[in-house]
Request: fold
Amino acid sequence: MSHIPYQDRRSQIEQYFDRTAVEAWERLTSSAPVSGIRATVRAGRDQMRATMLSYLPQDLSGRRILDAGCGTGAMAVELVRRGAEVLAIDLSPNLVAIARERLPADIDPSKIDFRSGDMLDSELGYFDHVVAMDSLIHYESLHVVRAVGALSARTVDSIVISFAPRTPLLAAMRLVGRAFPRADRAPSIVPVSEVTLMQSIARSPVLSGWETGRMRRISTGFYTSQALELRRPE
Reply:
């Protein structure tokens, strides 16, 4: 799966989440019972979401935030509860529709602009913060850095992403994952070397002036992902 162009890879991801496994992801991101394997994925995603939220100010009043790869909307809801105005975008129109349906009664719908489309679209405008939870884990290091660079041009304060760290455990889980029914299989996760990613960020002219900040790896059973904060110096 190496060296797949960004646009082609994006099309594969859209195909999977919008047509192949939307029901599986709808269940995974709900409170409905799931298998033991998927329960570990759910727990890991919950921890990752909490970690990424902890990298943002508690009071987000007056801040505009991009939830890049919003899925069924859990992150966007928490951002609004902190006072933010959120543009929540995902490649899958079906997942975005689920997010709209799940909007809690205490959330002002005018505070979340749900859209289906490309998170890198410059027409989305400018943001104070960007969060991209597990929306870049299917891309190689080169494309991760290019995506972050594109987002940085329209971000005032910070970008928080997650990436799939290159570990022996993750490699083993990818092999086991191939035993899943084809309809349930996600597009291949691309493990990224932490050292290589940090070096690529440091060398990127587009990201000149940005600093890497907090970082945390979450590993729960069949879920492994690593949060990374990038910020403009104060």
